[in-house]
Write a structure and sequence with these properties.
Blueprint (H helix, E strand, L loop, with lengths): L1 E2 L2 E2 L1 H26 L13 E5 L7 H9 L5 E5 L6 H4 L1 H14 L5
Parallel strand pairs: 3-4
Antiparallel strand pairs: 1-2
Amino acid sequence: METDGRFDTASAASLMQRQYRTIGSRTISYFDTTAGTSAPGPGPDRTLVIVGSEDTLTPPSVGRDLQRGIPGARFVVVDSAGHLSSLEQPERFTAAVTAFLGALPDDD
């Protein structure tokens, strides 16, 4: 996402839109359908802690500690990514979140 050392905002925007279509639409749909119902929303068994392997702001050890404090939470480290893992390794990030969402139980 750099062009001659400069951040390419158009590429970043396009990437974020693709990620939204892959991940966000399912998440928003889930929250829209559970709003105002007794269906479980985010909670211990519906938590994904995801960090970049090279993240110095919230390193994997901090993410692991967070995950340990949330019963049933899942933990993923995105290789070769820092704090902005969704932008630095979009395919890996998207795959991790998509796998997590796909493993959630249906609440029918």
